[in-house]
Every structure is written in C-alpha cells, then in structure tokens.
Specification:
The complex is a heterodimer of chains A (404) and B (404). Chain A is of the alpha/beta class. Chain A is built from 16 helices and twelve strands. Chain A has two domains: 203 residues, Glycogen Phosphorylase B (Rossmann fold), CATH 3.40.50; 178 residues, Rossmann fold (3-Layer(aba) Sandwich). In chain A, helix 10 links the parallel strand 7 and strand 8. Chain B has 404 residues and is an alpha/beta fold. Chain B folds into two domains: 294 residues, Alpha-Beta Barrel (7-stranded beta/alpha barrel), CATH 3.20.110; 93 residues. Chain B is 47% helix and 11% strand. The chains are: A alpha/beta (404), B alpha/beta (404). At the A-B interface, helix 14 and helix 15 of A face helix 12 and helix 17 of B.
Chain lengths: 404, 404
C-alpha cells in the first residue's frame, strides 16, 4: 500500500482513511506493507509493516513551499539528502526509487496507491514489475482547486495513474462521475467504496467536559445556537459562501454563533470577510485543532455544516453526526450520498443554507429529528464492509491479470 | 346476484413551494410556484390531467354510454375542485354529465383532505360542510356516503357519521379486524343503528392499484380472464366486491403503456356479460343487503402502508409539531374573518403535507420518497414552518388593523 501520511501525522482525512482501511483489511487476512515518504518514531502496528522511503521529518513530506526560507530548509532536511529533497517532486522521486529498490527483493500480489502523490510509484510498479495496480481516489486536483483547474502537472500525473491503473476505487459516486468526466476513464473501471467513521471513535476514552469552552457553554445556556464547520481553510471548502450565509442568518436571529475550526490559506480573507459583513462578534476562529479539542467543538455545537464546493467524501460529517449534531451538507459532498437524515443544499445557494440554519435553530422538533435519525444511519457503514469490498476488487483485479 | 362497487378517489393537494424564511412578512404567495419548479401545482395538475384524469374520465364516460349498468362512485376533494376550476374545468363538466346520467355517485369528505377529525372536531365539521356545499353547488347532489381522509376510520367516527345523517361510511377491510369474515358483505359499525359500513377488498383492489405493472409479481401480467376468475372465486365468499382505489391508479401510478386502460375497457363488459353480475354505487351497495354483522374498530385504521394506521402522517415529532401548531391557530384565524387568510390556513391542513414529512422509511427511498414533492422530509417541514410563520405574521397584522 502506497500512502503519504498516517496518524498522528495526518493533515486531514486521508491518513485516517488509510489506517482504518489497512487495519480492516489485515483483519480480513491481507498482509500489508505500507510505504510512507517520511521517517518517524511510529507507534508500531501489529497488523502491518510500515516502511519509510526517506529519512525526512514528517512535517516536510509535502516539500518546501516556493517561499520557504533557506534557513528553514537547512534546519529540516537531513544534511545527507540536502540536494535531492527540496520540493515535493524530489520527494516523490525518492519515494519511487525506494519502491523500485523494494520491489527488487519482494513481490507483492498487488499495489494499492492512495492519491496522486503515490501514483508515479504505482505506475513504476506496474510498468517495471508487472504488478496489478489499484488507484484509490480520495480527492482529485479538481476537488482541491474548488473545481477550478488547479495544477496542470498534478493533473497529468493523475491522468496517467488513472489511465494505467487496473482498477480505480472512488470514495463516492460524485468522485466516480468526476473521474469519468474529467479524466475520461470508462465508468466500468471504477468502483465506489465509501469511507467510514474511525472505529476507535466509539471506544476511545472521550469525555466532554463543559469547561473546555466555557464561553460557548454560557452562550448556549443563554439560548444561543452553535454552528460549526471543520476543515482546511481553502477554496475547496466553500467557506466564503458559508460566511455570507452566516451573515444572512444572523440578521434574522442574532443568537447564532459560528465556529470556524481549522486553518489554511484562506484564514485572513475569512477574518476580513466576517468583519466586512459586520458579524465578527458571532464568528469564532479556533485555529488548527485535533483530538480532544476537536471533539469538544463537535460536542458543544448544535449544527455542523459541510459547505464544500467539492468534497469527495467528507469524514468530518460522520464525526459530527456521532456527536449528535444536526448535519447540513452540500449536495456536492460524497457523504451526502450515504446520509439521508440531513439538510442539503447546493454550495452556492447561500440563502437556502441560511434558511436551513434558521429552521434548525428555530424548531426544536426539526433539530431533534435530524440528530436522532442520523445516528441510525452512520452506523450502517463500517470499515469491515470497506475491507470486504476492497478484497473483492483486489481479487477481481488479480484474476484479470492471471494471478490467483 | 354479484356486484362490483368501484369507488375512485380524486385528489390533488395544494403544495406549498420552497418558501424561504426571508420571505416571511414580505410575500404571502406560498402556493403558486413558478411553472417549471418542483412544487408547481399547475404543472403537476396539468400533467396528471393529461396522463390520468382525462383518459380515465373518457373511458368511464364511454363505458357508461355503452353499458347503462356500469356505475362508479367518486370522492372529489375541494382542493382538487379548486384547481380543476382554474386549469381543467372541462373535467368537472364531464363528471357532472356522469352524475346527471345517474351512473356516478359523489362521496362526502373534508374539503381540504385533512385529518381534522383527529385534531379539532369543529374544524372537521366545518370542512365537511364546506365540501357538501361545494358538491351541491357544482353537481346538484348531496353526498349520502362518507369517507374520511386516507380512509381513516374508527368507531367514534361512525357515531359521528350516523348523527350527521349519513347512510353509509367507507373503511379498509383489514384482516386483523375482520378475522374470518369477508369484506364482501355490508356491515354495521359497533353501536350504530342505521349506518352501513362498506369495507375495501384490499387484495383485489391492490392487484390493480399496486401490483398491476409489477414484473416481479408472480401473477404478472394480469389479464382480464385471470382477474375475472379471481372475482368469481372471491364472490364465493360474498356477493359484493368493493374495489376502492385512487383515481390516479389509472394513468399515473400505472402508466398507459402498462395496458391499464385496455384492462379496464375489457373488464367492464366482461363482468357485465354475465347475467347475474352488476356494478353498484356506494349507496346502492348499502341497499343491497341488511348488515350481516357488527364490526368494531376502536383503533384508527387507514388504507396506507402495511401498518394500516396513521403513522405515515402523524408518527414523528416533525409531523406532530406541524399539526399541533396549525390547529392551535384555528380560533385566532377564524376570528379575523379574513377569507384569504382562512383559506390559506386551511390549505395547510391537507394530509399530504405531514405525509411528506414522514421519516419512517426515508432512508430506504421507498414510496414515501417517490411521491414526495420535496427533497426530504426535513425540507418539507422547514418550508411548512416558514409558511406558518407568515400566517402568524398576517394574524398579528390583521389583529393590529382590527384595533382601529
């Protein structure tokens, strides 16, 4: 399995999806080597072997940005690899070289590559070693660029990877359609496998204590409704639309607080926008949070909004559902294909989103029905089903290749 | 003697459109959606007119002309008549011709197709009287037989109907009530002296209404000889077969290309071809024989779903909230004497509205989802509540006016 991150060094849903999938696959009897582009004191997993392709620090796995200072680079990059690991492309190259070396000694039945970062290595395995390749699409460059064109180089790598892969796994029907329309891949080569909630989510020792966000608890007691969103602040997430909807909703009902949890390049713009709209008093920015702090946000909020312009799946919606939030999703999110008990809207429809937020905050019956009913739904998708489906796809792919 | 009592229910609700909270107080047009929008009553009415009302009424009228023994009973809601007067007045004229020939009988019910009986007896009486007046005005006849919305029936409703002077009442012939008894007889509701009870033969009715075009059904395709044979067999249990169904069965639920019109066109003469067979209207059915037994239904029975109860309309918290709120406004609404306001408020009592808020089988995407005019039960509730807010706003402004 070729991946780019695993928790705790994950920046989003990709790492979480990978570890859960690997764990469930191992339970079904799969023997997995998972290759990462960085080296770290990993908690060891008894169900798979984790290999490091470089000696890089995890923080540096996406390479240095164009504006990163040399001094910072010197600090992060191990001296012996200084010249060859400056950009993400360098890291990908080293990653591929590692895969090549690894495959000289060892021949797996199948290579499962997660997202464009690992597709080149996957292609290499297929071309030079004749291994069946399954490309897993968690997101495409169109998603990351908010359905605008994005980076042409990434498109090319994606295109090649999807074209050469024996089978493709998409995380939703929406992603499957996008792969078909934008990359011209025949639909019958693509299977849809939905993600699920982290299975430790239920078991993990988590206790919400009301003190974590005292200010918010007080507001709630005073009859405020808390609306939250969680994610990277990037154009893909449609947060500017959400902010403008917030202004509309607050104009009707000033007792609504919006929490923007996360960070990203849009942060300053969003702060500015909230001030321009005159609602900065009702908007809270938490910065990047994870773990218990994130769960506290879910716990304290009443409504969770996923405002993404494009969201291949959208794991945070399941997490919020677990914490008994009423869920509002854009119709463009993959998770809206599996969650029925939610309000839905088109990402550009700021008025409808405001309508939905107001309806839930004004009608206890609606709030209660949404949060109760969604609980019966997200439980129905489990990682075990995901693994079973993946194994079926593996077998189909290998059979096709004449391997049994 | 063997008789078929064919009774068809003609109804279209006045749907509220996707009415935003931002329109409350500014725009009280809830019911006239743009022609091409999802909730356009005009578009839906015209569509069903072409697919079902017109071809089926033509079929009925032609058969009446050809066979003086062919008769039918119709229940026609006020909301249907209101729309037909605007968009297809020729349908009303056609039904009037059938009534004048003495081959069609009109059944009484609530004007607004509401479940007012279960919420407010005064409102229920008012809506039944409104309907009676409308039928008298248009068709020049007074309904003698009563059917409650969704065939919702219990013992106390029977007592009400007897006190009101009706000759008979319609209900579902549900096995759990009937036990070993057959629906093919006339019964007497428990505690009534003169009122007759006609029970739907749901097997033979649903063979046409639901299963006719179902290719997974072992009896598909349903031919006239086969169905005629079933009628013969069933008549051994009793001489009166009550076929109760939606008028839209013909052309809308079962499309023309399933052969449903040919089936009826062939069935009518085939049935009448045997000397002992006839068709009767609901009043004639009541006169056919004395009541064979007394039947008690303390619990409410309807003709919907496998449960045959009111749960499709009144089981979840959204439905109860919406209905409780609307009926709570009654006294204030009537006190305004504002005709438009009273009419708009009554349009909201139509049972189709809470039906579209049903979450019972929502995630399975079954019949409820298929027939709903809204994207989800939650959205339906949201728009309903928004409309209600505007009704309340109009109440408050008319109260202001009355002060001066």
């Amino acid at each position: 399995m070729l991946g780019w991150e695993l928790p705790p060094h994950n920046s989003g849903g990709l790492g979480i999806a990978c570890i859960n999938m690997a764990k469930a696959l191992a339970r079904e009897g799969a023997d997995i080597d998972f290759v990462l582009p960085y080296e770290t004191e990993h908690e060891t997993y008894d169900f798979m072997q984790v290999l490091s392709a470089t000696h890089l620090d995890p923080i540096y796995r996406y390479g240095g940005g164009a504006y990163e200072s040399l001094r910072l680079l010197e600090k992060i990059i191990p001296t012996n690899e200084k010249n060859k690991l400056v950009s993400i492309r360098d890291i990908q190259k080293t990653y591929s070289e590692f895969i090549e070396k690894y495959l000289m000694d060892f021949k797996p039945d199948l290579v499962h590559a997660h997202d464009w970062l690992t597709y080149e290595a996957g292609i290499l395995a297929k071309k030079n070693f004749d291994l069946p390749l399954v490309a897993h699409v968690h997101a495409t460059e169109f998603d990351r660029a908010g359905m605008r064109f994005g980076n042409p180089l990434i498109h090319e790598i994606e295109s090649e990877g999807l074209m050469l892969a024996d089978r493709i796994i998409a995380v939703s029907e929406a992603t499957k359609r996008l792969i078909h329309e934008k990359y011209h891949i025949p639909l019958n080569k693509i299977d849809v496998v939905y993600n699920s909630l982290d299975e430790n989510y239920d078991l993990n020792q988590y206790n919400f204590n009301n003190d974590s966000y005292q200010y918010l608890s007080k507001l709630k007691e005073a009859g405020y409704t808390i609306v939250s969103t969680v994610g990277r602040f990037t154009v893909q997430k449609g947060l500017q639309h959400l902010m403008r909807s917030a202004a509309r909703a607050i104009a009707k009902n000033p007792k609504i607080i919006f929490i923007f949890a996360g960070d990203g390049e849009e942060r300053n713009e969003l702060v500015q926008l909230s001030a321009d709209l005159g609602i900065s008093k009702n908007v809270i920015f938490t910065g990047f949070i994870r773990g218990k702090k994130l769960r506290d946000i879910y716990s304290i909020s009443d409504i969770f909004v996923m405002s993404s312009i494009s969201e291949p799946f959208g794991l945070t919606a399941l997490e919020a559902a677990h914490h008994a939030n009423a869920i509002i999703l854009t119709k463009q999110s993959g998770v809206s294909e599996v969650i029925w008990s939610a309000m839905k809207y088109d990402f550009w429809d700021e008025q409808k989103l405001a309508d939905e937020i107001l309806a839930i905050s004004n009608n206890p019956a609606l709030y209660q029905a949404l949060r109760d009913n969604v609980k019966n739904e997200y439980h129905r998708i489990s990682w075990n089903q995901v693994a079973k489906k993946c194994l079926k796809i593996y077998n189909k792919t290998m059979k096709h290749k004449g391997i049994n | 003697m063997r008789a078929i009592c064919l009774y068809l229910h003609i109804h279209q609700p006045i749907r509220y459109r996707e009415y935003s909270i931002f329109e409350v107080g500014n725009n009280s047009n809830y019911f006239n959606d743009d022609y091409y929008n999802r909730q356009s009553n005009e578009r839906i009415f015209r569509k069903v007119t072409e697919k079902s009302y017109r071809p089926m009424l033509d079929l009925l009228e032609k058969n009446m002309e050809k066979y003086p023994g062919f008769k039918v009973s119709l229940s026609i809601t006020g909301t249907w008549l209101d729309q037909a007067e605007k968009w297809a007045p020729e349908l009303i004229a056609q039904i009037k011709r059938m009534v004048d020939r003495g081959q069609a009988e009109i059944v009484g019910e609530t004007y607004y197709h509401s479940l007012a009986y279960f919420y407010n007896l005064d409102e229920f009486n008012a809506q039944v009287d409104l309907h009676t007046h409308k039928i008298q005005e248009i068709f020049g006849v007074t309904p003698k037989i009563f059917r409650n919305t969704e065939l919702a029936y219990n013992d106390s409703l029977a007592h009400w109907a007897e006190a009101k002077g009706y000759k008979g009442i319609l209900a579902e012939g549900w096995d759990k009530i009937l036990g070993w008894r057959s629906p093919n007889y006339v019964y007497r509701p428990a505690g009534c002296q003169n009122l007759k009870l006609l029970l739907k033969n749901y097997r033979l009715s649903d063979d046409i209404a639901f299963r006719f075009s179902n290719r997974d059904w072992s009896e598909w395709p349903l031919t006239v000889p086969k169905y005629h044979n079933w009628l013969d067999m069933d008549c051994l249990r009793g001489p009166l077969v009550n076929l109760f169904m939606d008028f839209e069965t013909f052309g809308e639920h079962q499309w023309a290309d399933t052969g449903i019109f040919d089936f009826m066109n062939t069935l009518i003469p085939a049935w009448l071809g045997e000397y002992e067979n006839k068709f009767v209207t609901v009043s004639e059915a009541c006169d056919l024989m004395p009541a064979s037994d007394e039947i008690s239904m303390p619990e409410t029975i309807t003709w919907a779903d496998t449960e045959r109860d009111l749960s499709a309309w009144l089981s979840n918290s959204l439905q109860s909230a919406a209905m409780n709120e609307i009926y709570a406004l009654r006294d204030q609404i009537l006190a305004t004497n504002d005709k438009d306001l009273i009419r708009d408020w009554r349009y909201l009592t139509t049972s189709d509205h809470p039906y579209s808020m049903c979450t019972k089988y929502w995630h399975d995407g079954d019949v409820h989802a298929y027939f709903s005019a809204y994207a989800s039960p939650y959205e339906s509730f949201m728009y309903f509540e928004n409309v209600l807010r505007d009704i309340e706003y109009r109440l408050s402004t008319s109260a202001e006016e009355n002060k001066f």
